[in-house]
Amino acid sequence: MSAKNGDSMNLDERKKRILSSVVEDYIESAEPVGSKTLVEKNHLDYSSATIRSEMKLLEEEGYLEQPHISAGRVPSTKGYRYYVDNLMKESKLSMLDIDYINNTINGFGDTDAIFEQIANVVSKILSTPTVITRNNTDTIENIKVVKISEKLLLIVLMSKNGTVKDCIAKLTDTVEDNVIEQMTSILNENLSGTPLKELHLALNKVIQKDLQLFSGIMNDVINSIKYEMSKDLKKLNSGVEKILENPEFTDIEKVKNFINMISTKEIIDSALQKTENDKLSIVIGSENKEVLLNDYTVISLDLKQDDKYLGKLSVIGPKRMDYSKTISTLKYIKEKFSTSLIINKNNDKVKGDNSEEGRK
Amino acid sequence: MSAKNGDSMNLDERKKRILSSVVEDYIESAEPVGSKTLVEKNHLDYSSATIRSEMKLLEEEGYLEQPHISAGRVPSTKGYRYYVDNLMKESKLSMLDIDYINNTINGFGDTDAIFEQIANVVSKILSTPTVITRNNTDTIENIKVVKISEKLLLIVLMSKNGTVKDCIAKLTDTVEDNVIEQMTSILNENLSGTPLKELHLALNKVIQKDLQLFSGIMNDVINSIKYEMSKDLKKLNSGVEKILENPEFTDIEKVKNFINMISTKEIIDSALQKTENDKLSIVIGSENKEVLLNDYTVISLDLKQDDKYLGKLSVIGPKRMDYSKTISTLKYIKEKFSTSLIINKNNDKVKGDNSEEGRK
DNA sequence: ATTTAGCACTTGAAACTTTTGAGTGCTAAA
DNA sequence: TTTAGCACTCAAAAGTTTCAAGTGCTAAAT
Fold first, then answer.
1. Is the pTM here over 0.70, yes or no?
2. Distance in angstroms, CA of A186 to C1' of D16?
3. pLDDT in tens, A48-57
């Protein structure tokens, strides 16, 4: 709390009003906001000269920045932060968007398919790249192997948190029913409780142990699982091209850099590290530890059902993003995901190997 | 065959050499090719003046074009066509590329997953957007329904040509084993022989007929299938952002237009209509019926196994694409697909409903 | 008859210059 | 405390010049 120019917490009402207007005008126009347009657009009851001196103070306190001396002002990271924390009103979703979400996210398919749907919807509504990552600390609970035909097996992996993933294994050889049973129990014995991120390692161990027993069939199965899971660890990336809609991306080099960045696992990982309690995580511009992300804002939420963490959804866009709409849309998605999407039902669990009996 | 300036078939050797050089220089440099650079780069044994007058003739005959009067020449559609048909030498794939293809395309997963792998590999090697479409005249041969847990069913669709597609249905209610059997036979009775593109319609009919019998479970199953198949009809689009690598896309508007175009089902469909016998189809620039494609070249091939047509792969890029590398890469992919990828095996067919007995 | 050196001409792109206008900070009056 | 007025700044747009790569044609050379 410095004595002279006050800290974040004590902007007077007029300053708040001005800061809020600058942020909103800039989000809308993408042009630095000048004192005159500000007065006109927002019907402020002061002359541009007054506003000008207020803006200067706001700049001195770090809420606004000037691209160059004869330009208007642009919010700084601190400015956006203050706006998001104290000034922003959450917008209501339009009926159109609500309908679109409800009609498109329907819960069909395995967990990844649902994640993909969600990412697509979000990136469409918000016109922004959207990334979903699975919770890979979730552990394998149960594996089923089903014979589809002579040389086709279907493998279903169910996780403790209730996600489902299926994959097809093509066999180089035919397989007996009892072999399948044997294989299934070996897989379950060895893999139950394994976190998804360690699955690859665990599968290698199984191969080493049991390869000879099944004349290559186990090998086929395990390779299929491996392949399928390696795909899963990739991020579900949607709508990267949406970034082109933003006026800050007129330069093709910037676009390329952005696409490279967002395709780089490490950078995305670093962006997504912390999401605390049940809130949205909002990391603005230079708040991002990763330098390459310093011009962007990342907003993330945890996808949860019955307190089980299934994955994380994030949108990445320029700092100048529509915070209000983004936040309210993501909150709606979070709510919908946790209440009305059947990914995981308590009474739909399978304990052990083949407990088909249920509890009705 | 006009008497005066000859038609496509009788360019003399020198003209062929020049045309070939212009095309190759232009593919490499993306700059209009002038007489002087042409002589230097290609060690032609004539002065630039001679080449100049030859180039003028080639222009008059329609093989070359001049962007403006003081610029070098650029191949016309006719020029590229002549080059591809008569002058081009197919390049050999680098060991690097061959390794990459062989290590990445591994045949794991269902048919769509394999298609996706292929599209990704091709777009990476050729740095060009790649589209795969399924053969949707293929018909359903057999449907299996497997109970995974109390409220989870797994549905596997096998087509006549041997492709496999699986999807998960989440039930709103629990299900008895005998219900599953009944449902499976109803599905098979009603859907066997249905072409994939008519599946949606056929599914609606099944719902109308049998909904009441299964208290909503059939409904859940059918909706899952519908959803899964609607995804499939979408094109498998890969590497759209690769278009940014081309110098013709410095303008962001062009990029946007291209992305819009390639996301438009109708345009892609029109581009992919004809592929005759077993050859690559190469449609250059204005040979495309669709006007929006007139600046692009589309090269397609049919993905076949044992004479069964499973889908079509196409790359779309600027007319100025590396025809030689593209064509040899695609031929390699085609060969690999038809010989070493197990999508469909004669002895892996399932006739009728649940012939688990095999023929060993 | 071909080929080529030479030259006048064209024109887009790059480099430079000028103009314009939106914006500023400061001062003095209200 | 507010504001009208004004000199000043500077990026962007518009306009200008220069430059270089290219052309076609002609007349001389092979």
1. yes
2. 81
3. 999 999 999 9
